[in-house]
Q: What sequence folds into this?
């Protein structure tokens, strides 16, 4: 069984279409909410999702969702963001991965819902980081069997780079691309500027790799 976990905090307009996409597949949906004040919980209930609420922060929310989603050791967890648009054949790709790679975690490639040179540059950087460094981020989704998730310690309850921390513990030999792209809302890139946001993210991950705390870097990120 596939258990989808989505952290939410007043998500964007992509959230309800994502719920509909998931509802049409044979998956269990858990929304881990950090205090939304909009219609997030109403939409989740309407689409048959389980809701767990508590401390905000993506690391806290992902860990909480995994803990209370109801998955057993041999079930699979699929962690995605609330602004994700899944590829049309996403479910078939997950099923194939389950059958052939039970000891590995999977992720999708990254795409932005925008046109131009800078969106393609951002996508290329993510592709290079994922392939050359075995370091996909959370907006690419993480598909992992529950027993492997538990074995690597799950998501850390930290405010930033919780995705980097768990992927490093999974290690490249237990990680593979699923093929296909998750399309992500480019609003933050458009707001901040592609160049500024891309290189700011690069500076943050370098600082984290050198030992800076997630709490300190989260303040800079915000």
A:
């Amino acid at each position: 069984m596939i258990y989808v976990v989505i952290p939410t905090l007043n998500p964007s307009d992509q959230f309800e279409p994502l719920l509909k996409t998931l509802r049409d597949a044979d998956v269990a949906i858990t929304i881990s909410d950090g205090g939304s004040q909009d219609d997030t919980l109403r939409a989740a209930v309407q689409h048959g999702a389980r809701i767990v609420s508590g401390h905000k922060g993506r690391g806290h929310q992902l860990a909480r969702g995994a803990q209370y989603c109801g998955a057993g050791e041999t079930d699979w967890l699929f962690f995605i963001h609330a602004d994700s648009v899944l590829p049309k054949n996403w479910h078939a790709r997950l099923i194939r991965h389950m059958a052939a790679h039970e000891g590995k975690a999977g992720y999708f490639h990254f795409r932005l819902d925008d046109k131009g040179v800078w969106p393609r540059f951002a996508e290329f950087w993510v592709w290079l980081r994922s392939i050359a460094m075995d370091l996909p981020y959370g907006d690419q989704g993480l598909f992992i069997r529950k027993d492997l998730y538990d074995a690597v310690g799950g998501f850390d309850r930290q405010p930033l780079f919780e995705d980097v921390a768990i992927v490093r513990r999974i290690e490249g030999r237990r990680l593979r691309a699923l093929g296909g792209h998750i399309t992500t809302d480019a609003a933050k890139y458009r707001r901040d500027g592609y160049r500024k946001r891309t290189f700011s993210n690069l500076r943050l991950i370098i600082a984290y790799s050198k030992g800076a705390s997630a709490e300190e870097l989260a303040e800079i990120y915000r």
Q: What stands out?
A: The two ends are 36 Å apart (CA to CA). The chain has a mean pLDDT of 94. The CA atoms of residues 29 and 125 lie 31 Å apart. The chain has one domain: 2-185.
